[in-house]
Fold:
Amino acid sequence: MTDQIFSSQVISRRWQLARFLSVLIEPSPAIIELPRRRRARMLSALLIITLLLAVISLFLTILDVNPIPKQVNENLVLIDLLAMLGLLGSYGLSRTRFSGAAAIITVVVILLAVFMAVFANPGVGMVLPYITLGVLMGGMFLPPRTTILIFVITVTIISALPLAIPGYPVSDLFVAGFFVLIVSAVVVLGTTLNSLDLEQIEAQSGALLEREASLQEAVQKAQDANRELSSRVNELKQLSAEVSLLSKMSQMLQACQNDAEAKAVIGQFAPQLFPATTGAVYLINASRTYIESIAAWGEASAPLSERIFGPNECWALRRGRAHLVQDQASDLACQHVETNARAAFPSLCVPLMAQGEALGLLHLESEQVSVSLTESQQLLAQSVSEDLSLALANLKLRETLRHQSIRDPLTGLFNRRYFEETFDRELQRAVRNQSALGVIMIDIDFFKRFNDSLGHQAGDVLLHELGTFLRTHIRATDVASRFGGEEFVLLLPETSLGLSVELAEELREGVAALRVPFRGQLLGPVTISVGIAAFPDHGMDIETLLNLAYSALYRAKQEGRNCLMTAYR
Structure:
């Protein structure tokens, strides 16, 4: 137990001594650079040992170990004192503001001491220790192996002096040996400090390299994150632009009143939504026998706009879901794509579905064979198809409702309410333009006989055929309406009384030649009675013109039917 306490006390004392020596050689915190701190530390250690050496040399000179003349001894004492002052100044300079000047001043002080020693005592014994010290001080700033080599050479030279110089004084050899021991301590201390500093520098360099590598990795990650963020920002900008365009297109489609307006809207927005593609929007006809293009865009859109094909030629319409073909060698292409000159290009077909019914098709093709359709383009195509489907379905529903509101379901002609609204509008236009307007009232002769003998179904067939006949034998500007029962009325804008009579006669003759098939037999002959009135010949308002035309029709029936009469003036 006592040995352990004694050992711990010794270790503690050594540690305190080491800390004291470390404090003596530690440079000022003002010296920040690592190489300068290392050299300042080494120079401070060397100057402390040199000061100790100068003190010992001063004592040896005072004790006159090597007997010399008194005047020379006094000069050497003065030289040692001056050298000590110079070394103290250099020590203070090396610790506070180490620079190349501190090392130069130290070397100059030692060289002056050497030259003054030689001048005071030309004996070889007093010169060699200072020369050795100067050489070793230069070696202190060299790598450890070089310093040891210089030390070995110096010791060898000093050891060989007695053999090389006859009569070499033993006292000088004793002094030289003393200096050899001191220099050995200097070399060991310098080499150790240098090695430790080099290890510390290498460790710090390794840490700096690792830190630099980690910083570079962090910078690379930051750059990758920045690029990814920029890419996401661009994607969000593109998505925002697409959503804005899609919203505008949906609003415009909802405001469309007919197919022509819807086609114009699709033709305007589709190229903006799919700028890097060639594509087209197709609609299925009413009889669902073929599909035709209503809008096409892109560099090679001409073949797509001219394409007409059957619904069964597209896998998307068959399956009721999108069909993507990125590589024709591995994917099954649609028939309408296989017959296209751009069959090898990646393509996408998206059906336009509404309430389980296919209304049409959205078709996209890549501009280049090697460029596939991206996922964002596919998702956008799905969104566009949904909006198009909804808009076209609403447009179709509105058209159906409008047709039902203004058309007679049996004959397909306009109903009486639509006729009265149109009559009022056309009459005002005729008054404003000072043009003519003809009115023809038609009634089927003996219609009740058809119903009584063959049934109401035969009468309905006859009414339907007569409505078809009237639609196909009047002008596009004329309006044919079912006025009620078996009575019909025609409105003829910009038509004089004479032209109205000619048209009425043509219609009467055409109906007389009409044969309507019903259950394997022909209904007929069918005849009509016609009453005619015209603006401004017979009146200036709707009620007057209709009453006069009806009166003329009544007189035609009284005259034997199958004839026409004009209103009285």
